Amino acid sequence: QVQLQESGPGLVKPSQTLSLTCTVSSGSISRDTDYWNWIRQPAGKGLEWIGRVSTSGSTNYNPSLKSRVTISVDRSKNQFSLTLRSVTAADTAVYYCVREKELLREFFYFYYMDVWGNGTTVIVSS
Amino acid sequence: EIVLTQSPGTLSLSPGERATLSCRASQSVGTNFLAWYQHKPGQAPRLLIYGASSRATGIPDRFSGSGSGTDYTLTISRLEPEDFAVYYCQRYGSTPPTWTFGQGTKVEIK
What we know:
The structure holds 2 protein chains of 2 kinds. Chain A has strands at residues 3-7, 11-12, 18-25, 34-41, 48-54, 59-61, 69-74, 79-84, 93-105, 108-116, 120-124. Chain A is mainly β. In chain A, a hairpin with a 6-residue loop joins β4 (34-41) and β5. The radius of gyration of chain A is 14 Å and the shape is globular. By secondary structure, chain B is an all-beta fold. Chain B is 0% helix and 54% strand. Chains A and B meet through β5, β9 and β10 of A and β4, β5, β9 and β10 of B.
């Protein structure tokens, strides 16, 4: 069973850059039917999709964050990463890395997020 | 942009009761693009339902999903103590690929 583990600094200063890495274990990051996502949850709020990267490196981002976000994949290390620039206190949240599956069944494509990391808390504060 | 609105915000029920959670989309959503997740404090969210009605691997059959178009429902037939949590619906948008969550429904012990 594929497992995901987030890593990175738990404290980032305002205006600086947040960088997190997700390590994929017990499975390959290189399957064409998988996409690799970042999702966050500020304290007391709901889940917010940040963006995703495919095995080939193509990306899609939440329009509200697009100008500040980069997600990349490193197949040689079985990792993918999140970079969020110019952070503010509003970026304080639990950040999850997540596997998204693309399933073709009876001529229809299904998409869902079936494997989640445990999450890592990032606090933006001076 | 499609918005998902979940209701009620909080559902207060006793173990053994039936829970019915609603997810309404501002525009029609393909059933193959609608999923439900369970989220407990301090844990990662867990996929329950994909394709609006297909249970994920290992999910008990007391969880069921239904709906089409703009109206979707997650039903828990008989609440077990471990089912008290927050539930999110989620929609995949294909052009361009984006994901949207509802704001969540908290199922709490009455």
